[in-house]
Amino acid sequence: MDPLDGFHLYDTTLRDGSQQEGLTLSVADKLAVARHLDELGVTYIEGGWPGAVPRDTEFFARARTELDLHCARLAAFGATRKAGVAVQDDPQVTALVESEAPTVTLVAKSDLRHVTGALRTSGEENLAMVRDTVAHLVRLGREVFVDAEHFFDGFCHDADYTTSVVTEAFAAGAGVVVLCDTNGGMLPHQVTEIVEDLRARLEQAGHGQARLGAHTHNDSGCAVANALTAVRAGITHVQGCVNGYGERTGNADLLTMLADLQLKMGLDLVPEHTLEEATRIAHAIGEIVNMPVSPRAPYVGASAFAHKAGLHASAIRVDPDLYQHMDPRAIGNDMRMIISDMAGRASIELKGRELGFDLTGEQNVLSRLAGTVKQREAEGYSYEAADASFELLLLDEIGRVPRYFEVESWRATSQQLRDGTLETEATVKLRGTVSGTGTGQNGGASTGRAVAIAEGNGPVNALDLALRQALRDRFPLIDQLELQDFKVRILDAHHGTDATTRVLVRTAGADLEFTTVGVGPNIIEASWEAISDAYTYGLYKAGVAAPTG
Amino acid sequence: MDPLDGFHLYDTTLRDGSQQEGLTLSVADKLAVARHLDELGVTYIEGGWPGAVPRDTEFFARARTELDLHCARLAAFGATRKAGVAVQDDPQVTALVESEAPTVTLVAKSDLRHVTGALRTSGEENLAMVRDTVAHLVRLGREVFVDAEHFFDGFCHDADYTTSVVTEAFAAGAGVVVLCDTNGGMLPHQVTEIVEDLRARLEQAGHGQARLGAHTHNDSGCAVANALTAVRAGITHVQGCVNGYGERTGNADLLTMLADLQLKMGLDLVPEHTLEEATRIAHAIGEIVNMPVSPRAPYVGASAFAHKAGLHASAIRVDPDLYQHMDPRAIGNDMRMIISDMAGRASIELKGRELGFDLTGEQNVLSRLAGTVKQREAEGYSYEAADASFELLLLDEIGRVPRYFEVESWRATSQQLRDGTLETEATVKLRGTVSGTGTGQNGGASTGRAVAIAEGNGPVNALDLALRQALRDRFPLIDQLELQDFKVRILDAHHGTDATTRVLVRTAGADLEFTTVGVGPNIIEASWEAISDAYTYGLYKAGVAAPTG
Q: What does the record give as EC number (chains A, B) (predicted)?
């Protein structure tokens, strides 16, 4: 499929989205986000500004070998050449070329006040900068888009000049000129008027068929509506960010626009089965950038199709469609009644079946399990994100949880010595009682007791290493399990350092991938719980028999 | 001022807003919110549903004596009479009368499918219910508004029937009929078409001058735009909730609509000096309902006028108005520079000025500082969230960072003993070299050395307590500083427990509130850095002199 054929869904999460206060992306984060965006089926992924931001230069370098895009095309963002410099001699333009991105999106000033006040050059030179840079990159075989910065404000101030920037870009070979509401203050009726006016001018200038785009921000609360309005006025390229990330109040939310355009305005942007992944992808990206999806987010938020029980409840049962603006399954979300039915017996029975346990009719087990889940979630546990810990809970309830090891004691110490060096070590002692099968060097066949000590980067790392060492001889499979992800969340932050901590640990290896959870006022204790559960679960799922002693 | 004269700004935070998942309001909360809304100058405050919700009955009772409204009028929300019941005999209608609210807003079904499917009555009886209830309340001297529920969906399904509900309400004496997008899925162009169609029909029916309202939800991300669009189509009453609270994705954000209508569309809704309180009021209400204002909220959010990009900073210095869609002071907010690794010298100069340091022309200092920020952010530090740590960095650069204490060593140990009990303790040793002024029990005047030990809930808590104890005798002000918030982020989570950790600590007390940051592979080390910086910064800002020894 040639991306130029259809409508462009252009994602700028990795560039403009990362301007969001509090959002910082590593190169690995960026690669992970890009894979999700490609899976969603966006047309373009703007990866960053190579040459200006070192991390972005590295992103494009690694993308060449590590990013195997199936659908999306990678775009590098950059600026037109500097005033008074030949385009070939501008290192920033050279960096764009060297990024090897097939598409380059150039930001160009289109408000004369910014040209003279911020760039401190003339309107004429600015036009030459647009012309030279676009033509140069087109000559080198790049697809070139131009972001007309401050387009709407500029058009209101001096429509002739702003239009001349657009026509200059098209004349030099730009594939799209994107009308940017950089300060984000436009209202929908203004967008309609300005886009229609511009299109009439472009028609006269012989660029009536040229493709226009819209880049909107949410400063007046109208980012999505402004983009939709622009589409109705003839625009065929919209830019936005997943979950509405972006500088200040954020960019237009890409997934809201996608759902509105496809489900309500009839545009065919991504395959149906891909749109059904939208909710999952929004939340996955929220996890990667560590900025969770707002429960109130349109379409993909946890509350987007949630109904407080009461007035509507009985009517909803009769005909849910009367109470929702679309079928939530179309974007992978679901209608939900807010009556904490998550921990109800029915859902636990369903969950059990999902895990391979038939609990049909086991009302006592289901009731006890529902009670335990409710109580532990009140303490801060979260089983939604930790299937493995839920399964261990279930196994415990039916008396089938395997006991691979019993902990005698553990200790973790971090210290800064007089000379400034940091030292962290941990000791783990496992009892011998269950070790009938063990003959490890650390313990010995006579007692089966295992004592291990390890140094680490931090107390949790040291404890993890010590526990692995204590288990290794008995259970060599341990070496195949790797702790891949470690998340800490302070639950009651208002108690300062004296608060409850939740730790989620993701483990992979031996053809498994699973998450365990630990909770406690002490981060070390919570981590210990999640890690020791991870090894128990890993050994159990890999089919290792528990000692019978 | 007769509220019927001008445009209506109708707040439903206390009714529809409280449908938000996770939001529960006590009567005292409701009274406090109402006072803030009155101060803001809204025209109507919908207080709740007396007779249906016991708390709301109590709210209206207490409002009569405890709520002294200067500007707003109180509205009680309720439903039209039950099918087949005389209006005088409907206890729910009687409760509306007994609430003594001067205005009553009745919800009426206006979608025929809901009339037959949910109410299970006929279209004719539904019209009689509207007629009887409105006329009854008007006879009793109430101002009556009608919320036409599911108006837009109903109009699309059967415009004639839906219009007849509107005309029936006006004929019976309703002051406003409010067009409700109850399921929230409309797009702006649909709103325009439907409102224009309805107005033409009302013109024909002799209600061309009647007042229409709009009640919108954000399910398609267009709540605010849909209301503004309705206003352009002739509507003169908008309903919304502060901070966009509300069921599912929320109601239209009242303050965003107010600012758009007044500052961009030229309507004169509230006095200028009242609008300047909007940011404060939004945050005050967020505190009362325990659901903080999103930093990304238009106009009033903490990030709404925050700039991160180095790109813009130099130009912002020249003319801030080129980079903001309106003057943030008009709604009581402020422009703010965020220091990040994208920041160049210009933004550091601006940030310095914000903190009270004039670095104009200090090119060397600015360059070194920009370099340090860039390098440390690459290591994982984040100064955007940690102004205090940035200020310490700046003080360090100009040789003015105060040295209140020097650390000799520290140690934190967590352990689980054989009997299963958990123990955590920390030791902190401070050198005597800087303690010329200290005569504490822990150290003594001869050396000034301080040694303290403390137990805690976790290693960080124990270290914090030990450090406070070691500093207390020298600096009694320490007891006024409280660590209020503690955030942990694992930066390169894919290394499992062997990853970089960032800790943010918010400290308050002694009329200060600030955030410090610490980074390291060891969570204890990172926490130690953030905590010890917090005490240094707190003592410095409180004006405590550093020992000179």
A: 2.3.3.21
- Interchain CB distance below 8 Å, B221 and A224: yes
Among A221, A302, A488, beta carbon nearest to B298:
A221
> β-strand B73-79 against B103-109: which pairing, if any?
parallel
Query: ipTM of the predicted structure?
Result: 0.76
Tens of pLDDT, residue by residue over A76-96, are 999 999 999 999 999 999 999
Q: Taking CB atoms and an 8 Å cutoff, what residues of chain B touch A505? A: 496-497
Could you tell me if B347 and B453 lie in one domain? no
Residue A36 CB neighbours (<10 A): 19
SS (H, E, C) A137-151: HHHCCCEEEEEEECH
Say how many CB pairs under 8 Å bridge A and B: 355
Instruction: Say yes or no for a CB contact (<8 Å) between A253 and B221.
Output: yes
In this structure, what CATH number is given to the domain that contains residue B480? 3.30.160.340
> Between these two residues, B434 and B400, which has the higher pLDDT value?
B400
A447: containing domain: 405-474
Q: Which residue in B has a C-alpha nearest to residue A413's C-alpha?
A: B413
| Predicted confidence (pLDDT) per residue in A437-496, tens digit | 434 343 333 357 899 999 998 898 999 999 999 999 899 999 999 887 777 877 665 555
Residue A167 lies in a domain: yes
Query: Are B327 and B278 part of one and the same domain?
Result: no
Q: Give the pLDDT of residue B291.
A: 81
Residue B39 counted as domain residue? yes
pLDDT tens-place string over residues B437-473: 433 344 333 357 899 999 998 898 999 999 999 999 8
Q: Measure the CA–CA gap between B390 and B387, rounded to whole angstroms.
A: 5
Question: What total of structural domains would you count in chain B?
Answer: 4
Interior CA angle at B444 toward B441 and B446, to 5°?
A: 170
Domain finish residue from A430, A452, A474: A474
**Neighboring chain A residues of B309 at a CB cutoff of 8 Å:** 19, 247
**Residue B299 falls within a domain, yes or no?**
no
Are residues B255 and B331 both part of a single domain? no
The mean pLDDT of A328-353, rounded to a whole number, is 69
Neighbour count for residue B547 (Cβ, 10 Å): 18
Q: Are strands A8-11 and A73-79 parallel, antiparallel or unpaired?
A: unpaired
- Evaluate whether residue B310 is within a structural domain: yes
What global pTM score does this model have? Answer: 0.74
Q: Which residues of A touch B221 (CB under 8 A)?
A: 223-225, 253, 256-257, 260, 298
Describe the strand order of the beta sheet including B450-455 as a list of residue ranges: A450-455, A422-430, A407-416, B407-416, B422-430, B450-455
| Closest chain A residue to B431, measured at CA | A418
Instruction: Tell me the shortest Cα–Cα distance from A418 to chain B, in angstroms.
Output: 5
Q: With CB atoms and an 8 Å threshold, state whether B221 touches A226.
A: no
Lowest-pLDDT range of A102-106, A180-184, A318-322, B177-181: A318-322
Residues of A with CB below 8 A from B322's CB?
A: 111, 113-114, 117-118, 150
> Which CATH number belongs to the domain containing residue A216 in this structure?
3.20.20.70
Give yes or no: residues B263 and B280 share one domain: yes
Task: Name the average pLDDT for chain B.
Answer: 89
Residue range A210-220, pLDDT digits in tens: 999 999 999 99
B440 shares its domain with B533: no
Alpha carbons within 13 A on the beta-carbon side of B430? 29
Between B22, B118, B303, which is nearest A21 by CB? Answer: B303
Q: Does residue A328 sit in the same domain as residue A186? A: no
Which chain A residues have a beta carbon less than 8 Å from that of B494?
28, 484-485
Task: List the beta bridge partners of residue A429.
Answer: A409, A451
Are A229 and A373 found together in one domain? no
Q: Do A54 and A132 fall within a single domain?
A: yes
